[in-house]
TrEMBL record:
<keyword id="KW-0413">Isomerase</keyword>
<dbReference type="GO" id="GO:0005975">
    <property type="term" value="P:carbohydrate metabolic process"/>
</dbReference>
<comment type="similarity">
    <text>Belongs to the LacAB/RpiB family.</text>
</comment>
<dbReference type="Pfam" id="PF02502">
    <property type="entry name" value="LacAB_rpiB"/>
</dbReference>
<dbReference type="InterPro" id="IPR036569">
    <property type="entry name" value="RpiB_LacA_LacB_sf"/>
</dbReference>
<feature type="region of interest" description="Disordered">
    <location>
        <begin position="34"/>
        <end position="55"/>
    </location>
</feature>
<protein>
    <submittedName>
        <fullName>Ribose-5-phosphate isomerase</fullName>
    </submittedName>
</protein>
<dbReference type="GO" id="GO:0016861">
    <property type="term" value="F:intramolecular oxidoreductase activity, interconverting aldoses and ketoses"/>
</dbReference>
<dbReference type="InterPro" id="IPR003500">
    <property type="entry name" value="RpiB_LacA_LacB"/>
</dbReference>
């Protein structure tokens, strides 16, 4: 079993700033963070990003 701390983060357009804050906090705790977006405030459908994070 791996002891590596890794997390994948995603959100919809409304939570970009919150997701980025969570990513920075996780990094400060030693987690490897993969932030898969979105990166623009344009309206987006969150299930699309949730599915990508689950993969």
């Amino acid at each position: 079993m791996s002891t590596e701390k890794r997390i994948v983060l995603s959100s919809d357009h409304a939570a970009i700033e919150l997701r980025q804050a969570v990513a920075e906090h996780a990094k400060s705790l030693g987690w490897e963070v993969e932030d898969i977006g979105p990166t623009s405030p344009e309206s987006t459908h969150y299930p699309k990003h949730g599915e990508a994070a689950a993969r």
